[in-house]
Amino acid sequence: EAVNGTILAEQPYNHNTNSLSCFYRYGKYVQGSTGKFTFNSLMSMLKLTLDVTGTGLVGEKLNSIVVKVVGKDGTAREIAGDFTFDLRDGSYEVISSTTTNQVTMSWTEHPTLAKSKSYVGYLSIIPDVLKGDKMTFDIITEGHKATFTAEISKNYAEGVVYSLPLTLKTYKASPSKYAY
After folding, report:
1. Beta-carbon neighbour count of residue 77 at 10 Å?
2. In what order do the strands lie in the sheet with 10-13?
3. Phi, psi angle pair for 176, to nearest 5°
4. Model confidence pLDDT, tens digit, residues 128-171
5. What's the predicted TM-score (pTM) here?
6. In this structure, what is the dihedral angle of CA atoms 38, 43, 49, 50, given to the nearest 10 degrees?
């Protein structure tokens, strides 16, 4: 049975409640059990850990983090948009006419960024991210926009959470250390 789904291009996030947008899972009955199921995540998830220590962003309110993915050949990757998926096996088909290569995590409570503190947020994306692609991050505060780009080190897969540290001081000192 196929159903419709959407990975939103703008995903509100509240780090106090850790509420997720666009978190799709499908389950299978465990044969021989008494009502047990195993569940698998349908898409990839990005765990973004922001640290602005040693930058001009300390003391500012965080508005959003924008993630954009471009293939090594310059094509836009499909990381948000509509899709249909099969509830039985989790196979899915992206509806390309609706997709975008950019996802925005809008922070609903706008925390004031402090030094020596990390801010963790989660985004769901369609796993159309391949080794060698470029992932750009825009960290947008009330007064600044910090941007950096990292190369993807592996093909992304369904059901995997990718932990991406956004330590701006470290990136500025040595951008080659960043490969996601």
Report:
1. 24
2. 10-13, 102-107, 62-70, 134-141, 145-151
3. -70, -15
4. 999 999 999 999 999 999 988 999 999 999 999 999 999 988 65
5. 0.89
6. -150
